[in-house]
Structures are given as structure tokens and as C-alpha cells.
Amino acid sequence: MHETMVAESLLTTISAESTKQKAKPVSAKISCGALNTVNDEILCFALEAIAKGTPCEGMRLEIEHKPIQGKCKNCYETFDFELCQPRCPKCRGEEFDLLPDAPLMLEEIEFETE
Amino acid sequence: MKKRVNVSRKILATNEEYALKNSQFLAEQKKLCLNMISSPGSGKTTILVKTINELKDEIKIGVIEGDVQTDLDAEKIRLTKAPVVQIETGGSCHLSAAQVSGALENLPVSDLELIFIENVGNLVCPSAFELGEWGKIVVLSVAEGDDKPAKYPVIFAKSKVLLINKTDLLESGAQVDFDIERVKADARKLNKGIEIFTVSAKTGTGFTDWYNWLKESVKNIRGG
Hints:
CATH class of chain B: Alpha Beta
Number of helices of chain B: 9
CATH topology of chain B: Rossmann fold
Distance between the termini of chain A: 37 Å
Distance between the termini of chain B: 57 Å
Strand order of the largest sheet of chain A: 2-1-6
Strand order of the largest sheet of chain B: 4-3-5-2-6-7-8
Strand content of chain B: 15-25%
Radius of gyration of chain A: 18 Å
Number of domains of chain A: 1
Number of helices of chain A: 2
Shape of chain A: elongated
Number of strands of chain A: 6
CATH architecture of chain B: 3-Layer(aba) Sandwich
Oligomer: heterodimer
């Protein structure tokens, strides 16, 4: 995943919200599914780099990774799907359907108010 | 004092809006659009050139060509006389839906039946950016090793077709350890509906099945 584009999009949205709230953002929470392949370190670095001189400078970023889920075709168990070793944890079955992956979302922003 | 604001906004919403616009446009026009993704050097351009040349009496094909720098690939496509629009990303490792939207305006879409988007050579980033295509085609050459579906699962989970290319190397006696069955099994574990064609763009082996799939898909889009 190209983290810089994600960071730019975050900066635009959070800066706009900051103007609206007339407050400085101190932290933001985002969530993403497994198929988004976001690397935390690179995203935080990219945001830090482009946030210099903007209201988002110094803002903390919290990243929640949501596993993609699979549904076993043998025992119908729904389970967190390991992309590197896909297998049903209950019956060890290897036949399953992939459930939709969580999108990359900006969940919440915390502002410092006077 | 601190205040929390719930936003719940998709971060790549802008890209998604363009992707949706592109897919609606292509659906209205009844054009098949395929997004080709692979590592650099897997043979995407060679496969495209061969496909365009050999299907030119059957399918009208246009190409959107993405590259970090140079228009070397677009030049190769131009020699086939197929319409091509070049996008030079200038460092970016993937194409965006907005870039494709602009490119579609510069292609004679109404004269075409099939539009290939040749993405930037990269197995990771392009997989996360929908462009509005009908399907993704992942190309893997045997020289890259048979562990790629296990190591780069996302693109294999999302693609409609896997083209295993350069299979001539396996028969040439070259020192290539590549277990085709392992690749097929690993890809199908992630994506049971994936179509897999083993081809050699050099010798032409295996292209008939790929062409049949293309012709069938063009027909379905046109009729549906």
C-alpha cells in the first residue's frame, strides 16, 4: 500500500475538521482490514513528515488492524483468516469463503480545546 | 480539555469515488476493462503486445499504460497500432482511479471492446487501489519463484485471473525451481474462483485458453 497517499488524505480530512472545530488535533484513530496492507511505521512516518507546519503537526496516530474473516465450508465456523496460512482453526479444513475485508477508515479524532 | 469527534470516513474515499465513476462509465459503454498487475519484468507488456497482435481481427483493444518513468512500454504497444494512453506516475508506485479517469477521456473508448490497464510493476501497492476495472489480472513469471502467492497474498486473493508466464524456462533446462502445482494450490486457497493459465509469451504456449477467456468475457460484458 502506498502510505504517502493515505497520509495525504488523512491530513486533508483532519485539517478540515480542525478548522471546523477551531481546535488542534492531538490524536486520530484509524482502522483497516488485512487486504489494505498498511504498514504502521511507514504511515506514521509519512504523516509526521507531511504534517510539519500544519495543525496536525505532532498528532498521534493510532492504527487498528482488523483481521479478514473466513467462513469454513465444512463446519461453517467463522474465523480470523491468516493470509499466510489459511486454515479453519476448528476442523483444519482448507475450503472456505472469504468475508468482505474492512475498509481503511478514519474513525475518530481527539482535539485539544481551550 | 479534550474532545473526541467521531468521523467514520473512508480514507481513500476520493479514489473510490473516481473508481466508481470509471466502473459506471465502462458498464454503460459495455466495455471490458482489465487491470494487469505484477512485479517488474514478469512480462506484462510482452503478453499485451502478443495478445493485441493475435486478437486484432477479433477484439478491438486499447491500453492505458502506467510507468514510473519513460514511455518505453507505451512505445512497444504503439507499434501494434492499438490506441494507447501513457500515464507517467513520476515516482508513485501505483496508478490511481483519478489518473485512469483522465486516461479514459483520451482513449477512443466507443471504438473499443476491451481496455487493458497496465499498472506499475509492483505486487503490493496497486492491489489496494481500485481503478474501476471489471477485474484484475495478476502475472507471475516462473523466474520469480513459487512462493509469491504465499508471500504476497493480497493480489492473488483479489484477482480474477492468474497468468503464470515464462514457462518455457522450465522446459529449457535452466536452473529454475518452480512448482506450478504449489502456486496453483496456494492461489486457490486464497481465491477458489481464480482462473489460472500457464503461458509462455516467448513460445506462445498456453495462449489459446487465455484468448478464449478474453473473448468470452468481452462477449458477456457486451451482452450483459
